[in-house]
Design goal:
alpha+beta; eight-stranded antiparallel beta sheet; 25% helix; Pnp Oxidase, Chain A; 161 residues
Amino acid sequence: MSPRPALVLSGKELALVESADMCRLATVSRSGWPHVVPVGYIYSRGRFYVPSDPRSRKVSNLKSSPRATIVIDDGRASGVMLECSARLLAGRAASRWIGVMESKGWQSGGSSVIELAPRRAASWFKGQAGGPETGSGERARPRSVLKSVLNARGRGDLRSD
């Protein structure tokens, strides 16, 4: 079976991704607790590459559940959330990316790199939500994503507490 192609970003999403090199990376521990950290990334050919120490919590989490969510925003009113499948790169596969990261003046964080392949996106741009469809590898409405999280927690509404 060939690898699933990465999600194609819209023009606005791509511009935002290419204008930044930091995002928030969320993984889930074996006990079910979320772990969110700011990380640097390189975006190339539809995938994100994040340096990491192989002993880090995010790597440990990804070994037990190879899924992650990243959020990239402009700090004001625009952003994109990407649900990704994750793969850990080491050795030769990681060294190429570590070299690029070090050429940018980054500390590589170790000998591993996390490769993230986006599967689903939700975006917002100055108050306007991203595309209308939902589903794997497609657009998701931010409100729909939030509602599904609340439903999973037994709350079917969007009231604020």
